[in-house]
Amino acid sequence: MSIHPLPPPKEPTGLGRLPVARWFLAIGTLAGVTFAAGFAVIMTILGDAVALSQRTDVDAQIARLNTALLLVFGLLLACGLGLVFVVRFAVLKPIDQLTEQVRAVAGGDFDRDLHVDRPAELAELSSHIDSMRRRVVSAWRVASDQAEELRRSNSELEQFAYVASHDLQEPLRKVASFTQMLEQRYGEQLDDRARQYIHYAVDGAKRMQLLINDLLDFSRVGRVNGGRSPMDAGAALDRALDNLSAALEDADAVVTRDELPRVDGNASQLTQLFQNLVENAVKFRSAEPPRIHIGVRRDGDMWEFSCSDNGIGVNQKYADRIFLIFQRLHARDVYPGTGIGLALCRKIVEYHGGRLWLDGDADGHGTTFRWLLPAAGDGR
Ligand SMILES: Nc1ncnc2c1ncn2[C@@H]1O[C@H](COP(=O)(O)OP(=O)(O)OP(=O)(O)O)[C@@H](O)[C@H]1O
Ligand SMILES: [Mg+2]
């Protein structure tokens, strides 16, 4: 997990474009020029007044006024210089420091402390910004640790599902085959009830084999043959239809399609995806022969695919349940299957960074599934 650097700051507009330092410089220069001009004018007037006066006491008064004015001007000059110093070192420099620190944090150095000592207002502002930084960073670290933990436990679970289902196959095969051998060899000595029990046992073992194989397929998504590359979605659909050709022919099904684009995908997984969806459309058909359409439209960086049929439909209240592993809406003797197909499809689509859902608008008029896959990035 990473925090992306912040986007560049928004440009100020109007008079705000001029930095405060420039404002101070401009106003300071104006004040300095006014001050110098005022000083020169007053000195000239005083000089003229001395030249005009004939009386010594007036001269003395003017000399005192002269000294007082010089003192006042000197004091004003000192205050002005003091103000420049204060603004320069007590305001502008700390702002520069803070800006530099904030820029470093925004650039990715999240452990950098934000701190300036003065003036008091900026010190308070910097301490608030710093506590905000610390809270954001610690929340981010917690989220990042949790994501890592989740990834680890997910991959452990997948590993577990794989190992468990793989290792369960062998003993199960033994149970099924020895029970069948029992029937073959001792069949004549058994009564009907015993034969029926054996039949149940074999049937149960076979069903468990199917479930285990489905679990294995499920746990393999993204682990085995998981690479993705630009590929033609139409070719994946062709392969899926080829695999289903007998079932499609039996049901008198017609599959139509839009022109399918290139996607960034895994060929064997996308074939599995199309195969499961079209197989469902055929299996859950109504009295009519199945009419299935594979559509596509562009959605930003993704392609939105759809698979619509004219079958028995799915009630919207089961829109989430049907995607859960081994969850089915019908008895096995009415529609065969283990209930892994849609869970597998969802896992495949999510592995591709997309989303698969039941389209709510199709309620009662067949079924439409929609899913997003990333566009190949090399055009159609
Ligand atoms: N096209 C569809 N029309 C009507 N119902 C559907 C359709 N697709 C799925 N369903 C419903 O969703 C449930 C789950 O589908 P899913 O493909 O996961 O399992 P399945 O087809 O029953 O078994 P499997 O795919 O393992 O052979 C189905 O049992 C069915 O009730
Ligand atoms: Mg299915």
Mind explaining what this structure looks like?
With 380 residues, the protein is α+β, with helices and mostly antiparallel strands. The chain folds into 3 domains: 14-112; 149-220; 229-374, Histidine kinase-like ATPase, C-terminal domain (Heat Shock Protein 90). It has 8 helices and 7 strands. The chain has helices spanning 20-52, 56-106, 120-186, 192-220, 233-243, 245-250, 267-283, 341-351; strands at residues 229-232, 254-257, 262-265, 291-299, 302-308, 356-358, 368-374. The chain has a 5-stranded mixed β-sheet. The chain has a two-stranded antiparallel ribbon with strand order 1-3. A hairpin with a 2-residue loop joins strand 4 (291-299) and strand 5. The longest helix has 67 residues, at 120-186. The protein is elongated. The chain starts with 19 loop residues before the first helix and ends in a 6-residue tail after the last strand. It binds adenosine-5'-triphosphate and magnesium ion. Adenosine-5'-triphosphate (ATP) is lined by residues 276, 280-281, 283-284, 309, 311-314, 322, 328-330, 337-343, 367. It catalyses: ATP + protein L-histidine = ADP + protein N-phospho-L-histidine. This is histidine kinase. It comes from Nonomuraea maritima. GO terms for molecular function: phosphorelay sensor kinase activity.
